[in-house]
Please model this.
Amino acid sequence: MPEINERPLLEVKDLKQYFNIPMGMFQSKPLKAVDGVSFTIGKRETLGLVGESGCGKTTVGRTILHLYKPTAGEIVFDGKEIESKADIQDFRKKATMVFQDPYSSLNPRMTVADIIGEPLDVHKLYSTKAERNERILELMDHVGLNSEHASRYAHEFSGGQRQRIGIARALAVNPEFIVCDEPVSALDVSIQAQV
Model:
């Protein structure tokens, strides 16, 4: 729980995420993937969402980060409601996601250096190319990847190594908040402990 006088890092209030399912030529029916979820996370806190497959855990995470536009509800980060495109862009400098599937979350046409460096490029978090490269190599080392492999492509790595690439990418912006969507569930048990 956050300290009494400390503002929560994230507040999710009555979050709803509905998807329209086609029911014929001109009709659709809403699928209620998330329906009225509320919770608060304080700084330095961890929250785990538990539920059976298909209950909306991933959708909650993606909706918080505005990868899906919320149907309804409020998402408040560090006291500020995330609504406009500018809010979302600023929020994404502070909040990232480690995706569940390391095979589909990495662009096969990009090198590892480009994958990890992409958030640095998007948010302009370096002054020189040398500073960018230094940060990429630092992140690779931090997650246990050999920096000599920076010019390789994702398909050249094992599942555990690919997940490390995804984790390095998520850490690139020094986020205050990370959504981890079952980050080790697709990996072999022996690799899960390493990651």
User: Anything to note?
Assistant: The beta strands are 10-22, 28-41, 72-77, 80-81, 95-98, 177-180.
